[in-house]
């Protein structure tokens, strides 16, 4: 009887894995796919879901995450996902912090690419940031970034040579932001209102927005949920549903939300600090089919006898751990800078 139960469950899990779509991961600033945190994160989720997982590198990783503009990063990513045969029927995107700008670009800007089913965002600067991720005062990357910061953030030169400049949104400098910022106003449909971009974004099956409660890198942290400062003020942070992006539905966020497809989730850690149990609860369900209604993989595992389940957990590294999915970065405030 026990043998038949286990045999039936094995067949069930094999069936589930057969129909699980692959996923791709885009890492954050000052990181690369080969770093231990990102590679382990990708491997765990692939093992748990039974889905092929790919971390897609843009250029050389760390350097280009700072200095390659997002229009070029998205073009490279678009070409790469088209070349991966396993993605042709559709795939999921997992964005880590700044990597969500590449993910958003793929959803909205990648013509004739494979369809994106779920966008799972960890600490994504979707509504912009009012400070720049920074890495201290030593090292070539930091010296160059610091030099660029002293120039006009919305000038053509800085926009073309400092990647985070593409999503910096100074609340008291909105006119220059809309005029000079080359990436975020485009994907957020703040200027021209491209109906194609909106249609593509609204076609997502699930938009999973994960905010980190102790996040001090994203300013404000609510940008992970599309919340942001009102134009012209630093005094408060508007919830996503009170922003013009939502109420006027610039990109289809309201459409998705009213259809029950937006998941506003939060975890307890610092920026990109997540436990394996939080990964299983907040990410894994969206890497298996019918995620919006059932959590088939995680629920089916509960049917295993405890001795078998514990052994399987050990094999797959499911024991409680805290993953730090970023290199050491600090935040430097822009309020003290003068921009022209």
From TrEMBL:
SUPFAM superfamilies: alpha/beta-Hydrolases (SSF53474). Gene3D superfamilies: alpha/beta hydrolase. The keyword Secreted does not apply. InterPro entries: AB_hydrolase_fold. Residues 1-18 form the signal peptide. GO terms for molecular function: thiolester hydrolase activity. Keywords: Hydrolase, Signal. This is Palmitoyl-protein thioesterase 1 isoform X1. It comes from Nicotiana sylvestris.
